[in-house]
Design a protein that fits this description.
6 helices
Amino acid sequence: MDRDINVLKHMLEYCNDITTDCNRMGNDLETFKNDKLYQKAVTMSLLQIGELTTHLTDEFKEQTADELDWRNLKGLRNIVAHRYGTIQFDTIWNIKENDIPQIVSFCKKYIDLIGKDKE
């Protein structure tokens, strides 16, 4: 369980990085589409979040599969890593807007739950 907590904390950190970077850069889709540095900041954090899913225990992912789609998160990592030049930035923006808040809530919930179980 310690491993899962540590991974979730790192995932949360990358989610927070996305929020911070977006706030710093203007949090605007048009700016995002036209700013390569902004695109790289967000997509690199998404890549790291996807990569971190591989470090969670299989047991944890199975227990929480109804809350987060682990396969798609890992798949997003592969798309960002291997097909960067073909990424649809509208899709990335939608992930940032819709999925990152869900991941943040999920991570906070399980960091608290697992931490309480250890007490």
